Amino acid sequence: MKAFRSLFARTAAAIGVAILVYDLLTHAFLGHYLFMPMVRRSADDLAAMMVLTAESWNDRWAPERPEFADRIADDHGLRLDPPITGLVPLGNSSSPYVAALVEAMEQRTGTSAEVLTDRHGAWYWVDVPVEGESVRIGFSADRLGADPLVTLYLMLALGSVLAFGTALVFVRRINQPLRRLVDVAGRIGQGEFPDALPTTGPDEIAQLTTAFNHMNTQVRQLLAGRTTLLVGVSHDLRTPLARMQFAVEMLSPDTDPKLAAALRRDIEEMDRLIGRFLEIGKGFSGESVEELEISTVIEELIDGVTRLGGRCEWVGRHACTVFAQPLALRRILANLLDNAVRYGGGQLVTVTQRCERDRCIVCIADRGPGIPDDEQEAVFRPFHRLEQSRAVETGGSGLGLAIARQLADANGWEVSLRAREGGGSEAVLIIPAGSRRQAGKGSAPRTATVAVRAQEV
């Protein structure tokens, strides 16, 4: 039933059913008010001719009857020489014409009537009562001409095919532009900016496409302006920050050492925040895609964490080549690893990486206090922190996971958090295979692909 939830299926079904119901009602009206009256009129004429023929046959002398039978056969196609055996009842339900003929015969003779046929079904016979006797008269099955039931079925089948065919063509003309809009909207959500869509089709669809193209341009300009402003402001702040650093170093020896240390920590924190903002700007700068061995990248990051005193272990290492933006991949993994070490409570952080046929999966797990289920998506929002004191010692800036999610979305990857069995949290990065897309003219592919090697390292 899921297929019928789409606009295409629902609209096509609605139009097709409406046309089919109209077709059925049209045939019903034609049959009741046109076809059946003509059938009854024709059957009554044949019944009258058969009764008249039987009466004329009964009035003639025996020597005259053969000549009369030949003349009736030539002029009217009726036979008066029925076979002696082999006739069976035809049944009134076999044809509307037969039923109408039986009804007409009964009205004219005042007695019950029945149509008989031979085993080949080539001739039909009716017994006509005349003055206490019965005259059996036959007429050819070809006399009926058309087969009403077959004609009705063919007309219904043709009407159904045309109805649903027309509905599919009509709805497809509406559905295709909408599907293109959905596809382009998804690509814009991943940070891509495709070319403008063609403004074809009905006026309403063309107007919608024009508005969407205008929105696409505005979003592109807005993001470009935001990124430029963010990078520019962050870069310009580095100059006064450097002067502040220089001023702190030039403080007199009489300055309180605790105050000087606090100023240095504040300056370092400001510099770190500025670096985070620059990361966001660089993450959407259209970095070129390169072939990377992801295990090498993970190994370098783990070595860096270990040198700084963090406890980190790599298990389940597999060779896996990905085509990705190097800085984006490193930022995501570094932010996830830094988050696990920071909130892991000093316990061992484990990193697992495996390659499957259609994706590469990296898991970074810690044994910290964990993240509540209702907060596992909220922590990916910029500046959102579980610890609300805003102190650097108890939490970061709230940008690490936000940057990881934005970079992953821009590349078509998946980043998520989940509770770890036994306590703690597990961050998961999934890089799908075979989903490379073109970001636009003159830009590199924004989505990585994976080449899996079976060899375990």
Automatic annotation (TrEMBL):
InterPro entries: 2C_sensor_his_kinase, HAMP_dom, HATPase_C_sf, HATPase_dom, His_kinase_dom, HisK_dim/P_dom, HisK_dim/P_sf, Sig_transdc_His_kin-like_C. Residues 232-435 form the Histidine kinase domain. Its EC number is 2.7.13.3. GO terms for cellular component: plasma membrane. The chain crosses the membrane at residues 12-35, 150-171. This is histidine kinase. Residues 172-224 form the HAMP domain. One of its GO terms (molecular function) is ATP binding. Keywords: ATP-binding, Cell inner membrane, Cell membrane, Kinase, Membrane, Nucleotide-binding, Phosphoprotein, Transferase, Transmembrane, Transmembrane helix, Two-component regulatory system. It is a multi-pass membrane protein. The lineage of its organism: Bacteria, Pseudomonadati, Pseudomonadota, Betaproteobacteria, Rhodocyclales. The keyword Lyase does not apply. It catalyses: ATP + protein L-histidine = ADP + protein N-phospho-L-histidine. It is found in: Cell inner membrane. It comes from the Bacteria. The keyword ATP-binding applies.
